[in-house]
Amino acid sequence: MNPDIERGSDYNFRDGYPEVRFSAIGLIDNQGEPKIDIAADIVLGSLIYNKEGDKYISNLSINVQVINQTNPDNIIGSKQYEVDIEKEDPNIVYSQQIHTFQQTLDVGPGRYTINFTLTDKSSDKKITHSTETYLPNPESNVSNLTNIRMEGKNMSSENPSWSPITTYDVPGRVDSLKFVFQVTNNNSSEPLVIDSQLLSFESDTSYARPMHYNNYSPSSIQYKGIDYNEEEVIQSTQRKLIEPGNVLIEFTFGNQQRGNYRFEVQTNISSEESDEAYKARDFAVKSKNYPSIKSARELAQPLVYLMREKEYENLMAINDPDSLKASVDRFWLKNIGNKSRTKSVLKKFYNRVEEANKQFSNFKEGWKTDPGMMYILLGPPWYVDERLDEMYWSYSYNRSDPERNFYFFEPRNKTEFFPFDHYILRRSQSYFNLQYQQVELWLSGSIMRRNL
Q1: Helices 309-316 and 321-336, interaxial angle, to 10°?
Q2: Mean pLDDT computed over 124-148
Q3: What are phi and psi of 48, to 5 degrees?
Q4: Which of 18, 19, 17, 38 is nearest to 27 (CA)?
Q5: pLDDT of residue 187
Q6: Residues 75, 272: Cα–Cα separation, whole Å
Q7: Which of 36, 80, 98, 450 is most buried, judged by most C-beta within 10 A?
Q8: What structural domains does the chain harbor?
Q9: CA-to-CA distance for 140 and 53, rounded, in angstroms?
């Protein structure tokens, strides 16, 4: 992890466990006191509820630990919170809506690791996230920057308001973005120049090729994933601070197109570690309801793995949402025939798409990745072996069966400058029959009886 580039939380998805996305950002309050703002998005449908009268109640326990990185054995703060979520809708157990938990912690200047653990008290299952943040000394004569807090707003919602964005992924429905950071400027000998930029990077947004196609060329963007050398400046701003003090700065942007971005800030006066103070927030704008699948286009797009090429092109050429949704429904019902079975198959298919988004998301939607495609078509692997930059998936007790064992490789090592799990399937023409068989299982509805 690069401590100067904030990327937000991953999904840390485990089937049957609470789903949480977590971020922690160090800021300085109006009185000049260092604080850590924590925010956690808790997915309501991932919790266990007890019915009491006409209400459905989930009881949660949250533990937050703050560890000073100069002495990892020193837990300088640990707090316990009890949270009860009450809803009257029985369908809450299927909801992808979130409950946002926010708290502010008092700390001193320094670099910290924050551990966030949520326990569902009804199941006793817990999930843990860890992140790092930095707080400059507001009284130091050395000017510096805090980390960048990212917020989003959906103006079409009933009560639009700014909410923290806790992950690398930004749902496309968010139509306004805000970046908040602070500058400690106690040296008045010269103006403090603050340069900020919003950048976009060339990146792969395509869906995975079929298993029996040719492998990707090493020069292709699909192979590289993101090319950080190919950047476009969306907006650039410079500000000068004359007066000393701690200054809160906000930048607001309208909706951006799908893709991968970086908002970065740097100053001209030395920080404690380099000739420049530099901070950035990386993010990706993805589909409208990401990681959920709700809109007609979101329902249509993953059908690329089940449709013939021309059939898929005709489907995606439909612009009217109602007509597109009707075409998706016709496709499923025409192939499966039975309405009840069709409903069950749809639920299984789109559950896998959402789970693929949560498990394999990187610079593009999880369902578009090679592991995501395999997960949707074949289901969870029976065995997974990971070795350095390799991964093996097995769907057989026979680990040498060429049609039931799959090899993935990472073309780029995961580093602080490329923090993604970017696994590519080693394709083979021998997979043609297997992929054809899996498509037929889905289209006939037989997938409800067998995965392979």
Answers
A1: 150
A2: 89
A3: -100, 135
A4: 38
A5: 66
A6: 24
A7: 36
A8: 1-135 (2.60.40.10), 137-286 (2.60.40.2550), 296-448 (no CATH)
A9: 57
Cis omega (within 30 of 0) on the bond before 109? no
Determine how many CB atoms are found less than 10 A away from the CB of residue 60: 22
Q: Which amino acid is residue 31, in one-letter code?
A: Q
Nearest to 142 by CA among 194, 195, 70, 192: 192
Q: Do residues 31 and 182 touch, judged by C-beta distance below 8 A?
A: no
Q: Does the structure show a pLDDT above 80 at 448?
A: yes
Give the position of tokens 């980390």: 147
Mean pLDDT of all residues in 21-39: 90
- Name the pairing type of β-strands 278-285 and 259-267: antiparallel
Residue 409 bridge partners (DSSP): 390, 424
The band of 189, judged by pLDDT with boundaries at 50, 70 and 90, is low
CB 346 within 8 A of CB 445: no
Count CB atoms within 10 A of the CB of residue 112.
24
Residue 146 tokens read as 């805090």
- Virtual CA dihedral for 171, 172, 175, 179, nearest 10 degrees? 50
Q: Would you say the C-alpha torsion 45, 292, 1, 411 has a positive or negative sign?
A: positive
DSSP track, 261-301: EEEEEEESS--SSSSS-EEEEEEEE--TTTTS--SHHHHHG
Phi, psi of 388 (to 5 degrees): 50, -110
Give the chain's end-to-end CA distance (angstroms, integer). Answer: 38
